[in-house]
Amino acid sequence: MLLLFRIVAILEGISYLALFVISMPLKYMAGLGEPNKVIGYAHGGLFIIYVAIAVTFAMERKWKFRKMIWLIVAALLPFGTFYLDEKVLKPLAVKKALDG
Predict the structure, then answer these.
(1) What is the reported pTM?
(2) Residue 100 domain-assigned (yes or no)
(3) Do 36 and 88 meet the contact criterion of CB atoms below 8 Å apart?
(4) What is the DSSP secondary-structure string of 56-96?
(5) CA–CA distance from 27 to each of 15, 17, 34, 87 (Å)?
(6) Is the CB of residue 20 less than 8 Å from the CB of residue 78?
(7) Scanning 22, 24, 45, 54, which has its CA 20 to 30 A from the CA of 60?
């Protein structure tokens, strides 16, 4: 579950940044709406999957509701999922690898 959550978190973060860096400028500066629609749908789907996995992950680990909310808030902030991966998920993966 941890590996899946890390992968989805990174993909969600990339799609969020792609929305701001690629599709929004194309939509508003070049008048091309189609990339925004495609990237927007991809981001929306990844966001829903991310939230579902975040809730499942937090419940599986018996984390408090407040910590689960922080997992979800990370997806709302640019670079939030990258920060979450570096500060929370990666150390958990290292710990799991060391524990065997």
Answers:
(1) 0.90
(2) no
(3) no
(4) HHHHHTT--HHHHHHHHHHHHSTTHHHHHIIIIIHHHHHHH
(5) 16, 15, 8, 34
(6) yes
(7) 45
